[in-house]
Amino acid sequence: MRLDKLLANSGYGSRTDVKKMLKTGAVEVNGQVKKDGKLQIDPVNDQIYVLGEYVEYRENIYIMMNKPKGVISATEDLREKCVVDLLDDSLRRFEPFPVGRLDKDTVGLLILTNDGKLAHELLAPKKKVAKRYWAKIEGLVNEEDVRAFEKGVVLDDGYVTKPAQLSIISGDSVSEIEVTIVEGKFHQVKRMFQAVGKRVLELKRIQMGALSLDEQLKLGEYRELTNEELTLLQSQK
Ligand code: URA
């Protein structure tokens, strides 16, 4: 593989950016400065450093974030802070994007990746990837709501939702619940509760497919997926 391709794939910018960087003498291959992007590299055995930083060859990154409130699930926005803005430069270099959307006031599990194929697989409606949420609901959620969610509720635009599993953790003037849905309509969970006359006060995604949110991650924190977690996510396909 060409050196410039390897560096570009590793998140060091476009081929043009990489060409400029090579010219400055920032890149060493097996201990020697190399300036020619056409140089053929063995990605497994050659040792590459950029400004003294070891380049671990990989094309894709997979990040789990515990999304905080107040940021939008986008890569850039003129006015709002985006989830990608929370990432360290070493990860932003790979140009990750969020897999699906959580509302600005929703917290919890968000996957960010630059693997378009995996993102597509996880979001394709026909794949019916399950998303599990924890929520606080104003009012008493009851067995009637559980049955309604199981049957499918009619949203404000007339859409009938696919069966969803609702479990009540505690119920009073404010109820705590978990709900699993296999779709991703705009504001879906909030609109499903609206359909049964109730209001979501707090919403947190806790699972996507077989992947659960790492509860060690505080709001706004993130980390790369482990190989096991990536395998779990890929098993959704
Ligand atoms: N459903 C919602 O209403 N909001 C979210 O952020 C996710 C699911």
Describe it for me?
It is a single chain. With 237 residues, the protein is of the alpha+beta class. 22% of the residues lie in helices and 26% in strands. A hairpin with a 3-residue loop joins strand 9 and strand 10. It is elongated and about 70 Å long. The model has no long low-confidence stretch (mean pLDDT 94). The protein binds uracil.
CATH H-tier superfamily of the largest domain: Pseudouridine synthase I, catalytic domain, N-terminal subdomain
CATH class of the largest domain: Alpha Beta
Classify the secondary structure makeup into a structural class.
Answer: alpha+beta
Cα-atom radius of gyration: 22 Å
Secondary-structure map with pairings?
Blueprint: H1 3-9, H2 15-23, E1 27-29, E2 32-33, E3 48-50, E4 53-54, E5 62-67, H3 89-92, E6 97-98, E7 107-113, H4 116-123, E8 131-138, H5 143-151, E9 165-170, E10 174-181, H6 188-195, E11 199-208, E12 211-212, E13 222-224, H7 227-234
Parallel strand pairs: 7-11
Antiparallel strand pairs: 1-2, 1-3, 3-4, 5-7, 5-13, 6-7, 8-10, 8-11, 9-10, 11-12
Helix pairs in contact: 1-2
The structure holds uracil.
The site of uracil has 8 residues, from helix 6.
